Please model this.
Amino acid sequence: MNANDMRIGHGFDVHRFSENFNDGRPLILAGVLLPEERSLVAHSDGDVILHAICDAVLGAVGGGDIGQHFPDNDEKYSGIASGVLLKQVLGIIDQKQFWLVNVDITVVAQVPKLTAYRQEMISSLSNLLELPENRVNLKATTTEGLGYIGREEGIACHAVVLLAGNA
Ligand code: MG
Model:
């Protein structure tokens, strides 16, 4: 596929951990259900990684942000799997004749330690994004105990995407 247009996009998202660590809600990151006690508070399933990617992809095509497309006061998005939202966002760029080139993600979390889940998350992202795994990079960092991440109040995520297209 020849591209005559390249676009870059950045997305950032934060979700806080629930107060009740035993509320039975799973922690879902990059579409993977993690066996952790803490979940993230959200209108959707709280997948902070997929939300950051959605915003990055929308940003690259001047498509606004995730909140405009999927309002968090709309009942139809209550508890929705964020992979469904991501698929819709990918549909938007497809319509505009853009496709993903690569994705680079930085998760900022003091807890949980993500190393053990990294490969599973990359595989999941590769499937969701329909990209080879060598075009999906997932990094994780802490804030060395500083700030709201360091106090283990939540998880943040940055995503950068490159799109190519024939626009
Ligand atoms: Mg979010």
